[in-house]
Amino acid sequence: MTTAVDAAEQHTLAGDLEAAARIGAVDGGGISRFAWTPELVEVTQRVAAELERLGLAVETDAAGNMIGRWPAPPGPAVMAASHLDTVPRGGPLDGVLGVLGAVEAVRILRREGFEPKRPIWIGSFMDEEGSRFGTALFGSRAFCGDDVSAALDARDPDGICVRDAMRAQGFDPARIGDAERVDDVGAYVELHIEQGPVLDSRGERLGVVEAICGVLGYRVVVHGEANHAGTTPSELRRDALVGASRIVLALRERAASRPDLSATVGRIRALPGATNVIPGRCEFTVDLRAATADAFAGARAWFADMVSAVVADEALEATVECDYAVPPTPMAPQVIEAFEAAALAEGIEPVRMASGAGHDAMNVGRRAPAGMIFVPSRGGISHSPQEWTATEDCELGARVLASTLRRLAS
Ligand SMILES: [Zn+2]
């Protein structure tokens, strides 16, 4: 019988995943490993030690990103990375599979005696999830030279700011600019669980990402008139919640008719919020995601027009504030092709798809040729202790990653 500890010492992907899942495991299920915490340090050090054992030179940059460099002739690096932090009570694979799959890819290439013609970097980006400070994608943003100074002032629920959390671990927030290294990257690859039901429901084993969806985030307030629930006839009401409901349904209809668009109202509040008062005000959020630049621009224009039409028809008014508008990130054709060739060599016909979720590849992909592959998430579940992918699929992902690294670094 193989115990969990034995498995971890065998230097296998399954063993590494099992060992990582014990770090930050919480009572009652799930894993909590947040930015700038001892749990994240512990798992990162464990991965760094394995990369060093494999002959890579490991460094932690000024933003807390861990990068292992395989010595090779100079040139633009081929980088495989993801993240080791989790959401609260997260699962064992989101992000972690990308990092440990890249470690497994190095093991495979080492066994083959591969000698890269250009540097191979294996990375783990700091704080992809943003669970503790709301500063998602912090590490990859700093790596890409984005201004993350505002994020340094963000505070966790205990009132600790990123700056202080960094200092407590010996980092100097003033040096954050030193983390910008994206210009040294010639190609970026990331293995991830799908976090959606597409591959699993179709019985497919591998997806190649064509684009990471752009996201439009709105805060909408519909203004009507609060009045008595019993005495105001229907035709004289200016019910803000009715207007908001029509907007919600219009969003659903639009998204249902377009495969490249999704729309979600995740938070809604009717005011004053009494059982016997017509809502005079309704506040809600809208999350619109589109895979292509055309769909993104189209959704933006349509949304504004649709809200105006609905509120006019209901004799209401609305204010719409756009909190963020991050355009879609197309993945690089040469990386997509390298992934597809690698998958076919494994006897797998991969499916091309869009990523509805954001990833570090979204930041790197704006500055360097990038690509991603997905393996199936059972039941489409992620960000949950129930998150699961068959070991054979995790291993397939690592083999395809290895073969892709070989192709790109030859
Ligand atoms: Zn992730």
Descriptive notes:
36% of the residues lie in helices and 22% in strands. It contains 13 helices and 16 strands. The protein has helices at residues 4-9, 13-22, 38-53, 96-112, 138-143, 149-152, 162-168, 198-202, 240-256, 293-313, 333-345, 360-367, 391-408, and strands at residues 57-60, 66-70, 77-83, 120-125, 185-193, 207-212, 214-223, 227-228, 261-264, 268-271, 277-278, 281-290, 317-326, 329-330, 351-355, 370-375. The strands form three sheets. Strands 1, 2, 3, 4, 5, 6, 14, 15 and 16 form a nine-stranded mixed β-sheet that branches. Strands 7, 9, 10, 12 and 13 form a five-stranded antiparallel β-sheet that branches. It has a two-stranded antiparallel ribbon with strand order 8-11. The longest helix has 21 residues, at 293-313. The model has no long low-confidence stretch (mean pLDDT 96). Bound molecules: zinc ion. Residues 83, 94-95, 128, 192, 359 line the site of zinc ion.
Quote the beta fraction.
Answer: 15-25%
Q: Quaternary arrangement of the chains shown?
A: single chain
- Name the CATH superfamily assignment of the largest domain: Zn peptidases
Continuous helix count: 13
* Gyration radius from CA atoms, angstroms: 23 Å
CATH class of the largest domain: Alpha Beta
**What is the count of distinct domains?**
2
Hetero groups:
zinc ion
**Global structural class:** alpha+beta
What would you call the shape?
globular
